[in-house]
């Protein structure tokens, strides 16, 4: 079969461009609150987001969309080990950077890097390589369940030490979606789900901040000035938006009340400024992204390409809806950024790089690939 590619999926590319462009506008508005409270200049706030996230991420998306996706299989193990090592490097004194009780960043001097965002890419590529190579034997626990548990365990060992429980759960969920797609046995899925519930229970009782999030989710009014403060202020912001919102740049909560207005609370700023109608449009954007991505996966003729798309699309989709759910009180607060919108140059760069791989897979939809 000829490897001559078609053009990328223009519908998915259009959705990505709209989400990134609209996301930067939302981020810019939310940044006004940070500048008012902390006196930061817009240039210093937006530099990483625009140059590294949008410009750098746009270049990465273009480059990745032009690299034949099956080439990643040759280097999957090395990519996984490299990204896992980079993530573990945050514990090296003088290189690792701590903030808010977590050690998740590498200090590069001119900027910071959150290597766990790159680990998402390395993990998905390696899991896709393993399960596609073991296709037909995945239902055997020796080739399916055991390797999956080992790979997720390696990632969890590094991530939970930082601690970055939220990102680990997102990675594990994406791996689970890929495992299901590859044909996992229902018995093995039940074992993993049971183990996951037990792990969350252990984390809740061993790590107070996890228990605080769960109890705050169940009773957000119990401590409105403490653990429940962010969700209370978020709900006020969302409710203040009404049907059509206060208008672009007119959020009040972002100035003095809403924590992390450019981070995990950016959806609340958006909801206040654009109202119920605006939030519905944003949700439609994420749903459209998800459905189009899974459509590409369904029309990809080889298992490796399909698993790559499922993994990357699942990461973005779950993260988006967990963030939105937390801001409206239907999911526990997680601290996860809102994809395409929240501050974080590394996160946006890695997301666009991963979606570049998805776009490359879309070039070969409907064509049976040879090994």
Notable traits:
371 residues; mainly alpha; three-stranded antiparallel β-sheet; 13 helices; 3% strand; globular
Describe it.
This protein is mainly alpha-helical and 371 residues long. 65% of the residues lie in helices and 3% in strands. The chain has a three-stranded antiparallel sheet, with no helix packed on it. Strand 1 (96-99) and strand 2 form a beta hairpin. The mean pLDDT is 87.
Structure summarized in a few sentences:
The protein has 13 helices and three strands; from the N terminus they run αααβββαααααααααα.
Q: Could you spell the SSE succession in H and E letters?
A: HHHEEEHHHHHHHHHH
Query: Helix proportion of residues, in percent?
Result: 55-70%
Q: What is the tally of beta strands?
A: 3
What is the topology, as strand order, of the major beta sheet? Answer: 1-2-3
What is the arithmetic mean of pLDDT?
87
Largest sheet, if any?
A: 3 strands, antiparallel
| Category by helix and strand content | mainly alpha
Multimeric state of these chains?
Answer: single chain
């Amino acid at each position: 079969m000829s490897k001559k590619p078609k053009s990328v999926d223009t519908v998915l590319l259009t959705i990505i461009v709209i989400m990134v462009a609209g996301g930067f506008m939302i981020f810019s508005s939310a940044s006004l609150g940070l500048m008012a409270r902390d006196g930061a200049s817009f240039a210093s706030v937006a530099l990483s987001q625009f140059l590294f996230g949008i410009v750098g991420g746009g270049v990465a998306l273009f480059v990745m969309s032009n690299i034949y996706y099956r080439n990643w299989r040759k280097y999957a193990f090395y990519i996984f080990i490299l990204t896992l090592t980079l993530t573990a490097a945050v514990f090296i004194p003088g290189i690792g950077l701590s903030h808010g009780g977590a050690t998740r960043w590498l200090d590069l001097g001119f900027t910071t890097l959150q290597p766990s965002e790159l680990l998402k890419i390395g993990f998905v590529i390696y899991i896709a390589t393993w399960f596609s190579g073991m296709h037909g034997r995945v239902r055997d626990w020796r080739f399916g369940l055991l390797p999956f548990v080992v790979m997720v365990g390696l990632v969890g060992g590094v991530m939970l030490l930082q601690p970055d429980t939220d990102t680990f759960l997102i990675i594990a969920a994406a791996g689970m979606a890929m495992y299901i797609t590859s044909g996992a046995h229902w018995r093995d899925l039940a074992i993993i789900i049971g183990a996951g519930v037990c792990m969350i229970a252990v984390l809740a009782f061993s790590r107070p901040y996890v228990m605080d999030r769960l109890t705050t989710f169940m009773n957000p009014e119990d401590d409105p000035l403490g653990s429940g403060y962010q969700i209370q202020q978020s709900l006020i912001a969302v409710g203040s938006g009404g049907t059509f919102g206060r208008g672009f740049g007119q959020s009040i909560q972002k100035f003095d009340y809403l924590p992390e207005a450019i981070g995990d609370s950016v959806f609340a700023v958006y909801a206040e400024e654009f109202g119920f109608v605006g939030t519905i449009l944003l949700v439609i954007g994420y749903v459209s992204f998800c459905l189009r991505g899974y459509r590409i996966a369904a029309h990809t003729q080889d298992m490796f390409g399909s698993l790559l798309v499922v993994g990357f699309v699942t990461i973005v989709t779950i993260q988006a809806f967990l963030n939105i759910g937390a801001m409206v009180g239907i999911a526990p607060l997680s601290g996860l950024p809102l994809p395409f919108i929240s501050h974080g140059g590394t996160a946006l760069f890695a997301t666009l790089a991963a979606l570049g791989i998805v776009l490359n897979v879309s070039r070969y939809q409907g064509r049976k690939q040879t090994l």
